[in-house]
Amino acid sequence: MKYIEEFRSKKLARTLADAISREAASNREYRLMEFCGGHTHAIFRYGVQALLPPNVVFVHGPGCPVCVLPIARIDNAIALVERHDVILCTYGDMLRVPASGRNSLLKVKAAGGDVRMVWSTLDALKIARDNPEKEVVFFAIGFETTTPPTVVAIRQAAAEGLKNFSVFCNHVLTPAAIQSILESPETRELEQVAIDGFFGPSHVSSIIGTRPYEFFAQKYQKPVVIAGFEPLDVMQSALMLIRQLNQGRAEVENEYTRVVSRDGNTKAQALVAEVLELRYSFEWRGLGRVPHSALQIKPRWSEFDAEQRFEIPASQARDVRGCECPSILRGVKKPTDCKLFGNICTPENPMGSCMVSSEGACAAYWSYGRFREPARREAAG
Amino acid sequence: MKDTSGRFSRRLDLRRGTVDMTHGSGGRAMAQLIQELFVACFDNELLRQGNDQALFEVEKGRMVMSTDGHVISPLFFPGGDIGSLAVHGTLNDVAMSGARPLYLSAGFILEEGFPLADLQRIVASMAEASRSAAVPVVTGDTKVVERGKGDGVFITTTGVGVVPEGVNISGEWARPGDVILLSGPIGNHGVAIMSSRENLEFETTIASDSSALHGLVADMVAAAPGIHCLRDPTRGGLATTLNELAQQSQVGMNLLEAEIPMDDEVVAACELLGLDPLYVANEGKLICICAPEDADELLRVMRAHPLSQRAARIGEVVADRDGFVQMETRFGGTRVVDWLAGEQLPRIC
What we know:
The complex is a heterodimer of chains A (381) and B (349).
Chain A: H1 2-5, H2 10-23, E1 30-36, H3 37-45, E2 56-63, H4 65-68, H5 71-84, E3 87-90, H6 105-110, E4 115-117, H7 121-130, E5 136-142, H8 147-160, E6 165-171, H9 174-183, H10 185-188, E7 197-200, H11 203-208, H12 214-219, E8 224-226, H13 231-246, E9 252-254, H14 266-275, E10 276-278, E11 281-284, E12 288-291, E13 295-297, H15 306-309, H16 325-329, H17 361-369, H18 374-380
Parallel strand pairs in A: 1-2, 1-7, 3-4, 3-5, 5-6, 7-8, 8-9
Antiparallel strand pairs in A: 10-13, 11-12
Helix pairs in contact in A: 2-13, 3-17, 8-14
Chain B: H1 28-42, H2 45-48, E1 62-70, E2 76-77, E3 80-81, H3 82-95, E4 100-111, H4 116-133, E5 137-145, E6 153-163, E7 179-182, H5 188-195, H6 214-223, E8 229-231, H7 237-249, E9 252-256, H8 264-273, E10 287-290, H9 292-304, E11 312-318, E12 325-328, E13 334-336
Parallel strand pairs in B: 4-5, 9-12
Antiparallel strand pairs in B: 1-6, 2-3, 4-6, 7-10, 7-11, 8-10, 9-11, 12-13
């Protein structure tokens, strides 16, 4: 724990907070988007916002893998269980995400569907080995960090000659999503979302490196600081972003040098490239269809591709009416701007995906941040 | 439960035998299981009465009663098993009223095919827990369900106890200005269970803190009969239990994260698994809320007891009509500590 506690030191936090207060100009706002749910979680869990001056504002981005998956893909996963009688293996958070018709994988499981929560892709492989008479599908979600383990599982299944294992691939790509936010009409034309700079992802960047961000830092003139997930990382990165903005720079800087390099993990990149390829486009919750923003399984490995192996009916699912997850994911609105927030949408009864995962902006607001909204509490009486 | 020893031509095969449907049928096989396993382990005067109920004198005063079903997986874990847990769980629920527990009952739901050797190990551990707590199991019940309809064994225990005169402990009595005490480091039980789960085994020396707290409670009540609230933070962990108390008493709470005792190993395991120790279950800890003038004496008594040497003052009760539990983080920030949503880990008790 020594190497973790070092990044949670109260004393250093105080020093950094003083530096930020000193250097942040009082006549302007600094709106900094943390793309990753991991950052959102750290900010709330450690109470980082309370240490910063009020004009340094965190804008919570779409970087929670559970939150960005559209309802239709969850309907697809449910169809795999209900129509094809597969054993569906998934990470725990996915169980509670609302699908259309107030359904969820948790409800499907309770009704007798074989849905299993796993901690790693290797657990899914073991389930496939142990149940040779059943089809086993791994519901793969996540950004670049969780992609290599999925690829390893596919290669392992091939090496073992496992015939009953396949992957429902929903892996998505970070740079494409950030670009989509910067390209969205709210940002470009309406200037509703003023984002001055970005905290770059930490774990994702350990795989892809810092190079992929250079293009849009330059094109859109927004500074990016790759930040670790510990609270001191977030504060140090906030200071680095503020300095860049004060000096009129828009560069990619790396605060998380203890893990991230410019080129990233080239071995993992090669592994992924061997099995997966870019999708022409993919639907994100909140961002709509984003070109070249997700991965699919290459034709050579199609026997492990659940989308090739099973006929999955198309879903016409739409979000719950009134749910502001799409706007919240783009940073246009805050969770407390949503009429459903805290009324009918709570972590116990999530209406939208942002309320499900602890990395989701709504769940984080609900669990850790409500006390910051005294006006709303008064209004709610 | 009459003394029927010698009535059965062959003794139960406790080494290789398994539970079958006849063990729950009410016939001779069931009588033999009760006699050679349950009565043999739990032996006490009231059980030996051999009736379908235990008959005992009632003490004058107020009694409490509590019941708890146990479905933990795995059945055996570092620091205990479903048997000892079934005793501790109910004893603690009785004790959190300030009561002295008197008697326990135990109901077993067994799955066809369950090894008798495992059952004996569990019952022996239960008997040991009840003996060292000096609270006998005086009546019980056994049912058997078909293979696939249970998960080895489920145990429900019920306990009764007597509340000393002048003691009035309830979750609704927390008042602004009260002090919140915690009896020791949190999260050990949940992490120990997790470390022994089939799909998640990891090397650790963390053992469950499962233990009977009524001895500690007796010391505390003797030192400060005016304790306001006692509760053991089991499922949902410290965070959820404090929220329950805050809601019941309609108050808020302010905690100091730096004062909450935790073992380094538990913190490290939680870090690895992405869990927040505040939400991880405990089976041998208690939260005490008391008037500020009682706090020092209670802390002294708690620290003198072997089960709570690391007791600490972790925060205070404040007026807040929304019932928010807030915490100053170790990092120096502030956050809300909310109820557990969903499930961090199923079947921990």
